[in-house]
Design a protein that fits this description.
There is one protein chain. With 705 residues, the protein is an all-beta fold. It is 3% helix and 53% strand. The strands form 6 sheets. It has a 22-stranded antiparallel β-barrel. It has a 5-stranded mixed β-sheet with strand order 1-6-7-4-5. A two-stranded antiparallel sheet has the order 2-3. The relative contact order is 0.14.
Length: 705
């Protein structure tokens, strides 16, 4: 179970974290629990524009911090979000591909994934997981999740939510008084015989200039499911690295320059294809803030992300031509490539001032991002799913938050525009989206000073992607049918209503314990929802679907179309109780959703994940150097999903800080060896079962001076 942290925005340095509800402190690097019940809920997130903690935020926000990352011993991005309500990862057997699902929405930019300010927009359309990004959990400092389209300062399209991943800095690694430091980590996973080796080094040249580097190597074989059967295609190896520097030109300003890269390889199609992906992200983030100039809190971010995927045919493969539909053979050694370049720029400023008894925080800015997609392949290749072209999205926003005693109000407007161009056609559009949030906390007189109730109405706008708009050609595998482009697609517009409660209380049973709780009900209606539709070749001739009999031909066409509406409803709760002896947590995520066609026909959404209830309990011993505990998670199958079943997972975890410089971690995942599948994998051609029981062991040695 994950603790909560503050809401969206770009890079702003956090306060020194007070870690409670986590693993044992690591000497000077981590702070011990303090009286007054401060928890990770009280930390200021590094991505908060307004400098608030999660418990103060009138939004559904969670954080996975360094303590949770270490405890989960995450091997893939999927492992990061265990127990976080409202967010699920779709990863089929290829564990290096990850689609992030927030509140039942995923793919085609519905969820914005941002690494150090750089959007991760690579997508390869097809069966199974479509969005593909890799960021090794070893490189992460923390991950923030914002659910729903309330984060209008993040950029266009995120009608489901936003995931902000921030990598480590030298300041996070070096202890007080150290100019240099290093660490090495070795880890072994019994399921798949997975080995992980990680090395980190940092150097502080002056108080105003430091640098940190990290390299990670993962080598995993095919894992076994709960039945003891190997899952084909689940082996992978990844080499990841990071280099990051922080420069402080003045007392009030900071510049962060970074590079994150990965080289992944795996096999697909029953070992018929060898896959390799190279990802490189370059970022520059500048912030200037002057306490004496309350109008100035400026953030400028520039980024360039490039992902190159190569699919190599290892054997001769029989297919159909995507042009003629006739049988052909693709010879071994042939290549299909997918290359995506994403430059982006973001600029914002927050001005703070008072008018009488009312405090104001006025945030304003703009952003621009472009995707340049180039796909190539031999005749009959899968590149037709992911057409070449250019997509540009940009926007500007203004947000005002005012506070008066027990009343808080946030109002915002965002303008978005987009443009798609390719050899097949082009499309464009724009819109203004509003947000209004009102929160009240006048409960001190009834003995509940830490209780806040809020309500939100927010709209979001997602432009169609290149694949949805411009896909064309003939399906090359199994059967032959046409893909029809649809340049007349209308952008999706999300209308979300959310009612939430924040509650914080200290000294419940003893002086140094605390309770933090966030809960919310949401209703998200997406107008003109875009989904795939099958069109009969014998339907209305104006549908442009024609049937030409031949080998493997099927009498239908496939096209992305607008549905009248998608309706998603849900409830989320996240809470943690912390005391000197240990911690306990409860997270709940209940969700349901369906589409309604223009003819009024209802159909279950295949992107609705399992509803979940996750409990966590941990104990501290030996002056907090030893932490042991466990997690139990019940997963309820979503309605209408043919492959989904109810299942329960039980995990155990432990950590031991043997010395100030030596730490051991252990974890058992799926203790009961359950055989289960992720409901989001219903779109794959075969049912893919998740790993069975797995024991993870790790040791980290640190040094410095």
């Amino acid at each position: 179970m994950t603790l909560l942290v503050a809401q969206a925005g770009w890079a702003q340095e956090a306060e020194e974290p007070i870690v409670v509800g986590g693993d044992a402190p690591q000497s000077d690097e981590q702070a011990a629990p303090v009286a007054g019940g401060a928890t990770a809920l009280d930390k200021i997130t590094i991505v908060s524009r307004t400098g608030e903690s999660a418990i103060e935020q009138m939004a559904s926000v969670s954080q996975v911090d360094q303590e949770q990352l270490e405890r989960r011993m995450a091997s893939t991005p999927q492992d990061i979000f265990f127990g976080v309500p409202g967010i699920t990862m779709q990863t089929d057997a290829n564990r290096t591909a990850s689609s992030v699902n927030i509140r039942g929405l995923q793919d085609f930019g519905r969820v914005a994934v941002i690494v150090d300010g750089a959007r991760q927009n690579f997508q390869r359309s097809g069966h199974g997981t479509q969005s593909m990004f890799w960021l090794d959990p070893e490189l992460l400092k923390q991950v923030d999740v914002v659910r729903g389209p309330v984060a209008n300062t993040y950029g266009s399209g995120a009608i489901g939510g936003v995931v902000v991943m921030d990598t480590k800095d030298a300041d996070d690694f070096l202890r007080d008084g150290e100019n240099w430091g290093g660490s090495v980590t070795g880890r072994y996973d019994t399921n798949g015989q997975g080995w992980t080796t990680s090395a980190t080094g940092a150097y502080r040249f002056t108080d105003n200039f430091d640098v940190l580097g990290n390299v990670v190597w993962r080598d995993y074989g095919e894992y076994t499911d709960g039945n003891g059967d190997e899952v084909p295609g689940s082996a992978f190896d990844v080499l990841s690295g990071m280099l990051k520097s922080t420069i402080r030109p003045t007392e009030n300003s900071e510049l962060k320059l970074g590079w994150v890269g990965a080289d992944d390889s795996w096999t697909e199609g029953g070992d018929a294809y060898d896959m390799e992906t190279r990802q490189n992200t370059f970022t520059g983030r500048y912030n200037i803030r002057d306490e004496n100039e309350s109008w100035l809190d400026l953030h400028l971010n520039a980024a360039f992300n490039r992902t190159d995927m190569t699919q190599t045919y290892l054997t001769d493969v029989a297919r159909y031509s995507s042009v003629t539909g006739l049988p052909i053979v693709i010879p071994a050694g042939s290549l299909t490539t997918y290359d995506v370049e994403t430059p982006s720029v973001d600029l914002s400023n927050t001005s703070r001032f008072d008018t009488g008894a009312i405090s104001h925080e006025l945030t304003y800015g703009g952003d621009w991002v472009r995707d340049d997609v180039v796909t190539t392949s031999p005749e009959g290749g899968s590149d037709i799913y992911t057409p070449s072209g250019t997509r540009r999205v940009s926007g500007a926003y203004i947000q005002e938050k005012f506070t008066w005693e027990w009343l808080e109000v946030v109002g915002a407007l965002r303008y978005d525009s987009y443009e798609l161009t390719s050899d097949v056609g082009e499309a464009s559009g724009d819109r203004v989206s509003p947000r209004i949030t009102v929160g009240v906390s006048p409960f001190e007189s009834i003995g509940l000073p830490g209780l806040q109730v809020y309500g939100t109405y927010a709209e979001g706008y997602r432009s169609p992607s290149l694949s949805e708009t411009l896909i064309s050609g003939l399906h090359p595998n199994g059967v032959v049918f046409p893909f029809l482009p649809n340049p007349d697609l209308v952008p999706e517009t999300a209308h979300t209503i959310e009612f939430g409660v924040n509650h914080s209380q200290d000294g419940i049973f003893q002086a140094d314990d605390s309770l933090r709780l966030k809960a919310a009900y949401f209703a998200n209606d997406i107008d003109d929802y875009i989904g795939g539709a099958t069109i009969s070749a014998f339907s209305d001739p104006f549908d442009n679907c024609t049937f030409t009999p031949g080998p493997g031909a099927a009498p239908f066409c496939y096209q992305y179309q607008n549905f009248a509406n998608a309706k998603i409803r849900g409830f989320e709760l996240e809470s943690v109780y912390d005391a000197h002896w240990g911690f306990a947590g409860l997270a709940v995520s209940i969700i349901d959703g369906y589409t309604v066609s223009y003819d009024g026909e209802h159909e279950d959404l295949t992107t609705i994940p399992s509803s979940q209830v996750t409990g966590q309990l941990g104990f501290r011993f030996l002056e907090d150097r030893l932490v042991v505990g466990g997690e139990v998670q019940f997963n309820g199958a979503p309605a209408g999903n043919a492959i989904a079943r109810d299942y329960t997972l039980v995990n155990l975890f432990a950590s031991y800080q043997a010395t100030d410089d030596l730490k051991f971690n252990a974890r058992v995942d799926n203790l009961l060896d359950q055989t289960y599948t992720n409901p989001l994998n219903a779109s794959t051609t075969d049912v893919v079962y998740e790993p069975g029981i797995s024991l993870k062991l790790a040791a980290t040695m640190r040094f410095g001076g």
